[in-house]
Amino acid sequence: MAVKIYKPTSAGRRIHSVTDYSVLDKKFKTPKHLIVSKAKPAGRNNSGKISVRHQGGGAIRKIRIVDFSREDKKNIPAMVKSIEYDPTRTAFISLLAYRDGAKRYMLTPQGLKVGDKVMYGETAEILPGNRLALKNIPVGTLIHDIELAPGQGGRMARSAGAYATLQNMEAGYVMLKLPSGEIRKVRDTALASVGQLANADWMNVRIGKAGRSRHMGWRPSVRGKAMNPVDHPHGGGEGHNPIGMKYPKTPWGKHAMGVKTRKQKKYSNKMIVQRRK
């Protein structure tokens, strides 16, 4: 996929870019049973208090139901009917029409085209979009939509351009190098899909103007050093000054950078061979 740049007809247009959606099927009608509506919490918790700042508003979006498992469609071939845009995720999605008449969405890997056949099963070929148990995938293959535990459904490597690399197999486990750089052990009976996800250039898109951020549901963010001391630890001072402390702080006085948030005794720590850098 590519990034599209327009002629600079305005100040916002000059620096913004968009994903090239010409490869998508815009005329295909999404099946109604694969769409649901969900209220947006706007960063608020169950008490109605803001727990995540700078969220709210944005364009109305319908959620597409994506099948991250495909476990009930074992050895049933499916044809790719369309490749579509999903407003709630960075990756593209493909509509599959199974031989038994069912229709499902799945994440779209690079190289997949309308009319291609995909399948989940032990005898599936190592082709983009096919889903297999990790023990049936050759070492060195790029994979995505990986299960952390067998039967759980895909959890890892699901965003645009993401992939993990299958590095080794030993004693019922496989070693995976994840997009973060972490090397992790996963049961070899867990499922994964072959290939790297499409729309890898998504990260190179420039938003370009404030209004586009608002459409995405991102509210304005104010610098702490522009506030008063009563509102933020970085606040106060005459004119433009540095934050005046050894390390940046959150509005509540905690360390803002370099803090480890993972629980030291988390149950899955033993599965991590090498932490991300």
Oligomer: single chain
The overall strand count is 17
User: Strand fraction band?
Assistant: 15-25%
CATH architecture of the largest domain: Roll
Helix content: under 10%
The dominant shape is globular
What structural class do you assign from the helix and strand content? mainly beta
CATH topology group of the largest domain? SH3 type barrels
List the topology elements.
Layout: E1 3-5, H1 11-15, E2 17-19, E3 35-36, E4 63-64, E5 78-84, E6 93-98, E7 103-107, E8 117-118, E9 131-133, E10 142-144, E11 146-147, E12 154-156, E13 164-170, E14 173-177, E15 183-187, E16 191-194, H2 210-215, E17 272-274
Give an overview in words.
The protein is mainly beta and 277 residues long. It folds into 2 domains: 3-43 and 57-203, Roll (SH3 type barrels); 222-272, Ribosomal protein L2, domain 3 (Irregular). It has helices at 11-15, 210-215, and strands at 3-5, 17-19, 35-36, 63-64, 78-84, 93-98, 103-107, 117-118, 131-133, 142-144, 146-147, 154-156, 164-170, 173-177, 183-187, 191-194, 272-274. The strands form 5 sheets. It has a 7-stranded antiparallel sheet with strand order 9-16-10-13-14-15-17, with no helix packed on it. A hairpin with a 4-residue loop joins β6 (93-98) and β7. The radius of gyration is 22 Å and the shape is globular. The mean pLDDT is 91.
